[in-house]
């Protein structure tokens, strides 16, 4: 395993992070989830990402039990706050009330006294940004949170937060967690240049484009049984935009590139994201331990300029680049 700094902070994270968005407490049974976490640990992964909303808080419970007994100082545990975790109007968003109540629930479920990174899971247009940043800063001062980050924020939202933090002497954002893959590059035009200037690292999710870049979805063929595209708990909704024959045909044309490099399609996809120097870590998920063992082999892989150009030529105009595709709800869900 290779390690990188999280942005300009002193925190080291594993290049490959393990996430449990659509798996723990949802797609896979707990025994399988624990086996995947064990595989991640065995492969040298030290960074684990989750969120209070995943599987209705069950994902944090499962991860906490799976990591029980591990040396806490040897792990980096990340979680998030914003999406609804209860029925009330204050069970969501980035108000001081919800942030404080959510962190205590997350710490209890994860079985830890602190999280290494606490992330605002979306931008909250109904809460003054000063209120959100002060609440995060208070948690840092209390020792319950070590670093603060965001997820799926636009460049102008990150810039506003940095300005307020500097004016008020608050802890600065050190990371952003965006969707990023060879097919989804919406952060490259605005978020990445700002982040490079300000010392913010990207912890990218869906580096395999919900599994499309593994090549398992074939044009003109039925969807594989048990795949994310057949998951009725949220996975199918995310992947459907990719399931057209033109794009799937292009993805199959990446296979010779992966073969030439001695990589699996999944390894090529993850390695591609890690070529961006602003990326601190790529998050992988898994329903089977062997998937973890395959994906971690992307760590340390270097792709030269010719390979990157070949990938660009194959994918062509299938790549999504519009920064306006980064969207937070106009009102709390």
From TrEMBL:
PANTHER family: HYPERKINETIC, ISOFORM M. Transmembrane segments: none annotated. Residues 15-314 form the NADP-dependent oxidoreductase domain. Residues 216-235 are annotated as: Disordered. Belongs to the shaker potassium channel beta subunit family. Coiled coil: none annotated. This is Aldo/keto reductase family protein. Keywords: NADP, Oxidoreductase. Pfam families: Aldo_ket_red.
């Amino acid at each position: 395993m290779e390690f990188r700094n999280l942005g300009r902070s002193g925190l080291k994270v594993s290049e490959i992070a393990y996430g449990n968005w659509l798996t723990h407490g949802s797609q896979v049974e707990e025994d399988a989830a624990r086996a995947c976490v064990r595989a991640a640990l065995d492969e040298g992964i030290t960074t684990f990402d989750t969120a209070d909303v995943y599987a209705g808080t069950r994902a944090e419970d499962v991860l906490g039990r799976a990591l029980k007994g591990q040396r806490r100082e040897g792990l980096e545990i990340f979680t998030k706050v914003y999406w609804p975790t209860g029925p009330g109007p204050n069970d969501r968003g980035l108000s001081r009330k919800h942030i404080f109540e959510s962190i205590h629930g997350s710490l209890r479920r994860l079985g830890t006294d602190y999280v290494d990174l606490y992330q605002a899971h979306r931008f909250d247009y109904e809460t003054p940004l000063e209120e959100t940043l002060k609440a995060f800063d208070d948690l840092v001062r209390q020792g319950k949170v070590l670093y603060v980050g965001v997820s799926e924020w636009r460049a102008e939202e990150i810039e506003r937060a940095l300005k307020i933090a500097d004016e008020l002497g608050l802890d600065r954002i050190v990371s952003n967690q965006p969707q990023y893959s060879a097919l989804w590059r919406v952060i490259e035009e605005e978020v990445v240049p700002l982040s490079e200037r300000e010392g913010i690292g990207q912890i990218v999710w869906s580096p395999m484009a919900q599994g499309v870049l593994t090549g398992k979805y074939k044009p003109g063929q039925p969807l594989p049984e048990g795949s994310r595209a057949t998951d009725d708990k949220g996975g199918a909704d995310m992947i459907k935009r990719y399931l057209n024959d033109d794009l799937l045909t292009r993805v199959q044309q990446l296979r010779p590139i992966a073969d030439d490099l001695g990589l699996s399609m999944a390894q090529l996809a993850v390695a591609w994201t890690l070529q961006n120097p602003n990326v601190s870590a790529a998050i992988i998920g898994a329903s089977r331990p062997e998937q973890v063992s395959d994906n971690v082999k992307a760590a340390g892989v270097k792709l030269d300029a010719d390979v990157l150009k070949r990938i660009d030529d194959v994918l062509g105009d299938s790549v999504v680049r519009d920064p306006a595709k980064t969207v937070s709800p106009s009102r709390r869900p």
